[in-house]
Amino acid sequence: MQDFGFLLTLAIILVSTKLLGVASAKVHMPQVVGALLAGIILGPSGFGVLSSTDFFVKAAEIGVIMLMFTAGIDTDMEELKHTGLQAFVVACMGVLIPLIMCGALYFFFFEGEFNTVNVLRASFVGSVFSATSVSITVETLNEMGKIKTRTGTTLLSAALIDDVLGIIVLSVLTGFANGSGNVLVVLLLIALFFVFVLVAGFVFHWVFVMISKEHWHSRRVAIWALAFAFLMAYCAEEFFGVADITGAFFAGLILCNISKSRQFVAKKITVSSYLLFAPVFFASVGMKTDLTTMNSSILLFALILAIFGVISKIAGCGLGAKVCGMTSHQSLVVGIGMVARSEVALMVAQKGIDAGMIDAKILPAIVLSVVVSGLVTPILLKAAISKGPELV
Q1: Are 334 and 90 in contact (CB under 8 A)?
Q2: What number is the average pLDDT over the span 126-150?
Q3: What is the pLDDT of residues 269-295, one digit of tens each?
């Protein structure tokens, strides 16, 4: 007889993630923090109400693919063109410095021998902290009336480029993790993947432009777009050894400048995602965050990692802004504004665990760092803006 217990579990996940998500928003935290807490409290570390099953593993994977697709389709390419070199330099430094600092910290704590596998593991941990989520920053800048300043514009554009660069780094690392060990083969597959993206982008962009001329407001366009995201995700993982979320993200980028259909498709898929699949994904991350395995070494690592996660973004992005001619105060504000991490960091961490490159026992440390980054960003940002010269 078929077991229908998964329906009760699903109901518990949806209700608990939403309630705690709303509670998080009330204290000016991303709702994802509440969803993570729901998984932790109701999972193995808490009351043990929730447990991972094959159904929830697959539902979570669909959720992360849909999240990355919407992240891609929400990218404003025109904004990126206008900000140009300045935002690109800030983003590059904001990816490189956390990658090195947080990766080196992990290597120091858990990997003694210098070899390819250990360096790859450390790089995966570092790549988690390369991602940026500026939703908290945008809310703070809006509240203080600074969103339209040069600093605010640089922040928004750098965050978009940051995500693209972070996904490229993840693609390379995943390729090596899934590869046979032959560096040339791995690099060739990664290069072929980007060639595939260019070809698919040209073909499918044209197809969707044709479709959107007459059917841009039709639900079938959103269905075809989602099918395209799943197809790109499958091809990335199956044929090139690249993370499926990379394929989904680039599927979104391919469709992001189809003016008529873009907002309609993004809205439909975002609603579908956050109704079901995204809550399952965030709850699943919380369920895997087993606090019972934390010993003094991991706790110390978690505390230092949280500090490194904040400092590395401020130093990296702030230095990039300074190099581009911004004032010391503007550079500091840019650096602080790029500190917060959220969905993308958790997705990269999950991919690292799936690839066997990140040990699940350090997931609590990663989650703690993500939460801390969200807590300190608005506090530091308001202090930096209010105590410095006027931003222009």
Answers
A1: yes
A2: 76
A3: 989 888 999 899 889 888 888 787 788
Say which residues have a Cβ less than 8 Å from residue 16's Cβ, sequence separation at least 6: 38, 41, 42, 283
pLDDT, greater one: 370 or 180: 370
Task: Determine what percent of the chain is predicted with pLDDT higher than 70.
Answer: 92
Element housing 30 (H / E)? none
- Distance between CA atoms of residues 124 and 126, nearest Å: 5
Instruction: Work out the average pLDDT over 218-247.
Output: 89
> How far is residue 17 from each of residues 12, 24, 345, measured CA to CA in Å?
8, 10, 19
Rg (CA), the chain: 20
Residues in the chain: 392
Angle at 125 between CA 197 and CA 349, to 5 degrees: 65
Q: How far apart are CA 143 and CA 360, in angstroms?
A: 38
DSSP label at 275? I
CB 193 within 8 A of CB 171: yes
CB-CB neighbours of 218 under 10 Å:
14
Longest dimension (CA), the chain: 69
Instruction: Please give the DSSP secondary-structure letter assigned to residue 389.
Output: P
Structure tokens of 195? Answer: 């060639």
Distance CA 366, CA 304 (A): 11
Count Cβ neighbours within 10 Å for each residue of 119-147 and write b for 16 or more, e otherwise. Answer: ebbbbbbbbbbbbbbbbbbbbbbeeeebb
Tokens of 369: 């760092």
